[in-house]
Amino acid sequence: MELNVVGKPASKKVVRSIIKIDEKKCNGCGKCVSPCAEGAIQIVNGKAKVMSDDLCDGMGFCIGVCPTGALTVETRETVPFNEEKARMQPKIIDSSIVCYKCGKSEYNAYLLPMRHNGESLWVCTRCLPALIHG
Ligand code: SF4
Protein backbone atom coordinates (compact mmCIF):
# COMPACT_ATOMS: atom_id res chain seq x y z
CA MET A 1 0.00 0.00 0.00
CA GLU A 2 1.26 3.47 -0.91
CA LEU A 3 1.69 5.77 2.15
CA ASN A 4 1.78 9.57 2.31
CA VAL A 5 4.35 11.68 4.22
CA VAL A 6 2.63 11.11 7.59
CA GLY A 7 2.40 7.37 7.08
CA LYS A 8 -1.31 7.23 6.23
CA PRO A 9 -2.64 5.50 3.12
CA ALA A 10 -2.25 7.86 0.16
CA SER A 11 -5.40 8.94 -1.61
CA LYS A 12 -5.71 7.67 -5.15
CA LYS A 13 -5.77 10.41 -7.76
CA VAL A 14 -8.97 11.01 -9.68
CA VAL A 15 -10.00 13.25 -12.57
CA ARG A 16 -12.64 15.70 -11.39
CA SER A 17 -13.82 19.33 -11.37
CA ILE A 18 -11.89 21.74 -9.14
CA ILE A 19 -11.59 25.52 -8.78
CA LYS A 20 -8.77 27.25 -10.64
CA ILE A 21 -7.62 30.71 -9.50
CA ASP A 22 -5.94 33.09 -11.94
CA GLU A 23 -3.57 35.01 -9.63
CA LYS A 24 -3.02 37.73 -12.23
CA LYS A 25 -6.74 38.58 -12.15
CA CYS A 26 -7.21 38.16 -8.36
CA ASN A 27 -7.22 41.45 -6.43
CA GLY A 28 -7.41 39.79 -3.01
CA CYS A 29 -10.84 41.22 -2.16
CA GLY A 30 -11.77 38.04 -0.28
CA LYS A 31 -15.37 37.87 -1.54
CA CYS A 32 -14.86 34.22 -2.52
CA VAL A 33 -13.86 33.05 0.98
CA SER A 34 -17.17 32.82 2.82
CA PRO A 35 -19.30 31.48 -0.09
CA CYS A 36 -17.11 28.37 -0.03
CA ALA A 37 -18.99 26.17 2.43
CA GLU A 38 -16.03 23.78 2.48
CA GLY A 39 -13.61 26.44 3.72
CA ALA A 40 -11.25 25.65 0.86
CA ILE A 41 -10.31 29.24 -0.04
CA GLN A 42 -8.23 31.65 2.00
CA ILE A 43 -6.38 34.86 1.18
CA VAL A 44 -2.62 34.30 1.32
CA ASN A 45 -0.22 37.19 0.62
CA GLY A 46 -3.06 39.17 -0.93
CA LYS A 47 -4.25 36.44 -3.30
CA ALA A 48 -7.02 33.84 -3.09
CA LYS A 49 -5.70 30.33 -2.73
CA VAL A 50 -7.28 26.85 -2.62
CA MET A 51 -5.63 25.67 0.60
CA SER A 52 -5.92 21.99 -0.20
CA ASP A 53 -7.34 20.25 -3.26
CA ASP A 54 -9.20 17.75 -1.08
CA LEU A 55 -11.25 20.63 0.43
CA CYS A 56 -12.60 21.87 -2.93
CA ASP A 57 -15.62 20.00 -4.27
CA GLY A 58 -15.58 21.98 -7.53
CA MET A 59 -19.21 23.12 -7.15
CA GLY A 60 -18.20 26.70 -7.92
CA PHE A 61 -20.29 28.75 -5.48
CA CYS A 62 -17.31 31.12 -5.33
CA ILE A 63 -17.35 31.86 -9.07
CA GLY A 64 -20.40 34.12 -9.17
CA VAL A 65 -19.10 36.47 -6.48
CA CYS A 66 -15.67 37.15 -8.01
CA PRO A 67 -15.64 40.69 -9.44
CA THR A 68 -12.61 40.10 -11.65
CA GLY A 69 -13.33 36.74 -13.29
CA ALA A 70 -10.36 35.12 -11.56
CA LEU A 71 -12.24 31.92 -10.72
CA THR A 72 -13.09 29.11 -13.11
CA VAL A 73 -13.70 25.38 -12.83
CA GLU A 74 -11.22 23.08 -14.50
CA THR A 75 -11.13 19.32 -14.89
CA ARG A 76 -7.83 17.77 -13.92
CA GLU A 77 -6.20 14.93 -12.02
CA THR A 78 -6.04 15.53 -8.27
CA VAL A 79 -6.94 13.94 -4.92
CA PRO A 80 -10.60 13.10 -4.23
CA PHE A 81 -12.82 15.59 -2.37
CA ASN A 82 -12.69 14.84 1.38
CA GLU A 83 -16.20 15.50 2.72
CA GLU A 84 -15.26 14.73 6.33
CA LYS A 85 -12.28 17.13 6.28
CA ALA A 86 -14.44 19.84 4.70
CA ARG A 87 -17.11 19.40 7.39
CA MET A 88 -14.47 20.03 10.08
CA GLN A 89 -13.32 23.32 8.51
CA PRO A 90 -14.33 26.48 10.42
CA LYS A 91 -17.27 28.22 8.75
CA ILE A 92 -16.70 31.87 7.90
CA ILE A 93 -19.73 34.17 7.98
CA ASP A 94 -19.42 37.47 6.10
CA SER A 95 -21.99 39.90 7.50
CA SER A 96 -21.66 42.09 4.40
CA ILE A 97 -23.31 39.36 2.31
CA VAL A 98 -27.00 40.29 2.13
CA CYS A 99 -29.83 40.15 -0.41
CA TYR A 100 -29.39 43.24 -2.59
CA LYS A 101 -33.19 43.76 -2.71
CA CYS A 102 -34.41 43.21 0.88
CA GLY A 103 -31.17 43.24 2.88
CA LYS A 104 -31.71 39.84 4.57
CA SER A 105 -28.57 37.95 5.55
CA GLU A 106 -27.86 34.22 5.54
CA TYR A 107 -29.11 34.12 9.15
CA ASN A 108 -32.71 34.70 8.06
CA ALA A 109 -32.80 33.81 4.35
CA TYR A 110 -31.40 31.46 1.74
CA LEU A 111 -29.02 33.46 -0.46
CA LEU A 112 -27.89 32.76 -4.02
CA PRO A 113 -25.03 34.45 -5.88
CA MET A 114 -25.90 36.24 -9.12
CA ARG A 115 -24.35 38.61 -11.65
CA HIS A 116 -25.98 41.76 -13.04
CA ASN A 117 -24.47 44.59 -15.09
CA GLY A 118 -20.96 43.42 -14.25
CA GLU A 119 -21.67 43.31 -10.50
CA SER A 120 -21.59 40.31 -8.17
CA LEU A 121 -24.75 40.34 -6.05
CA TRP A 122 -26.66 38.09 -3.67
CA VAL A 123 -30.40 37.54 -3.83
CA CYS A 124 -32.64 35.67 -1.36
CA THR A 125 -35.09 33.00 -2.47
CA ARG A 126 -38.05 35.28 -1.57
CA CYS A 127 -36.87 38.07 -3.88
CA LEU A 128 -35.67 35.77 -6.67
CA PRO A 129 -39.13 34.94 -8.14
CA ALA A 130 -39.82 38.64 -8.77
CA LEU A 131 -36.56 38.84 -10.73
CA ILE A 132 -37.47 35.80 -12.80
CA HIS A 133 -41.12 36.63 -13.46
CA GLY A 134 -40.95 40.43 -13.37
S1 SF4 B 1 -13.36 37.01 -5.26
FE1 SF4 B 1 -11.96 36.88 -7.04
S2 SF4 B 1 -10.69 38.74 -6.91
FE2 SF4 B 1 -11.67 38.47 -4.88
S3 SF4 B 1 -10.16 37.27 -3.69
FE3 SF4 B 1 -11.56 35.78 -4.63
S4 SF4 B 1 -10.54 35.19 -6.58
FE4 SF4 B 1 -9.55 37.09 -5.85
Explained architecture:
This protein has 2 helices and 6 strands. The protein has 134 residues and is mainly beta. It folds into 2 domains: 12-90, Alpha-Beta Plaits, CATH 3.30.70.20; 95-134. The strands form 3 sheets. Strands 1-4 form a two-stranded antiparallel sheet. Strands 2-3 form a two-stranded antiparallel sheet. The protein starts with 13 loop residues before the first strand and ends with a helix. 22% of the residues are buried. Residues 21, 26-32, 48, 65-66, 68, 70-71 line the site of iron/sulfur cluster. This is Ion-translocating oxidoreductase complex subunit B. InterPro entries: 4Fe4S_Fe-S-bd, Fe-S_Ferredoxin. Residues 17-46, 47-76 form the 4Fe-4S ferredoxin-type domain. GO terms for molecular function: 4 iron, 4 sulfur cluster binding; metal ion binding. Keywords: 4Fe-4S, Electron transport, Iron, Iron-sulfur, Metal-binding, Repeat, Transport.
